[in-house]
From TrEMBL:
Pfam families to which the protein is assigned, alphabetical: PRiA4_ORF3
Domain of life: Bacteria
Organism: Herpetosiphon gulosus
InterPro entries the record matches: MM3350-like_sf, Plasmid_pRiA4b_Orf3-like
Record domain Plasmid pRiA4b Orf3-like: where: 10-164
SUPFAM superfamilies noted in UniProt: MM3350-like
UniProt protein name: Plasmid pRiA4b Orf3-like domain-containing protein
């Protein structure tokens, strides 16, 4: 098939988080004109990260990224370098690193390079699986330890007891009894346990939410500039 010179090209990317089982992956379609700065924002949204730490893209052995005070310096302007500039071919891959303390590494494969689908908005996430690990959990080893701890009987038994206490207080109130208050120490302790559990929950993958965030990014392409990553991470 011969394409007109003006036909937009779309890179079909598969993003895989290294050293995590079951595998955490996303399939995302991005325009060939996507800049390094845009790609960084797209990867953050697709995976579920919070853009709270430093990052770098390694393409053909060279580092690219968005500079933040106290962080890495990059030789190239991330708003000027575009994905198409690398002339990547189907089957090639590059790497995205995030949070240098935890050192999350993502392999990004070029699965296809195809013409844009008329009326489709890009970037577009069309598949994925696996929850995003919580920030600051210690990288792949720390995340594996966190999952083991969260599924241990020693952790689940008191959590179950806390949930039962909360349910009992709510049922009592619904039946006309006293309202649970901050003066109820047992009730507040149970809520604290649930809050702690939720704080370390992996971020579930929601393709619709990812695409909604992509659309918002398209309307406000510099929104990610408001983030101030921790220069130590």
């Amino acid at each position: 098939m011969t394409l007109a010179a003006s036909t937009p090209l779309i890179y079909h990317l598969k993003i895989v988080l290294r050293d995590i089982t079951p595998q955490v992956w996303r399939r995302v379609q991005v325009a060939a004109t996507t800049t390094i700065a845009d790609l960084h924002a797209i990867l953050q949204i697709a995976m579920g990260w919070e853009d709270a730490h430093l990052h770098q893209l390694l393409i053909y052995g060279k580092a690219y990224g968005v500079y933040h005070d106290g962080g890495f310096s990059f030789a190239d302007d991330p708003d000027q370098v575009r994905l198409a500039d690398f002339r990547l071919r189907v089957g090639e891959r590059f790497r995205y690193d995030y949070a240098m303390g935890d050192f999350w590494q993502h392999d990004i494969w070029i699965e296809q390079i195809r013409p844009a689908v008329p009326h489709r908005v890009y970037p577009h996430c069309h598949a994925g699986s696996g929850a995003c690990p919580p920030e600051d959990c210690g990288g792949p080893p720390g995340y594996r330890a966190l999952l083991r701890e969260r599924t241990s009987w020693d952790r689940l038994d008191p959590l179950h007891a806390a949930m039962q206490l909360i349910i009992e207080r709510v049922q009592t109130f619904a039946a006309g009894g006293p309202r649970p208050t901050v003066d109820d120490d047992d009730f507040m302790d149970a809520l604290d346990q649930l809050d702690d559990w939720e704080a370390w929950m992996p971020i579930a993958f929601d393709r619709r939410a990812v695409n909604q965030a992509f659309h918002a990014l398209g309307r406000n392409p510099h929104a990610d500039n408001d983030h101030h990553p921790d220069p130590d991470r």
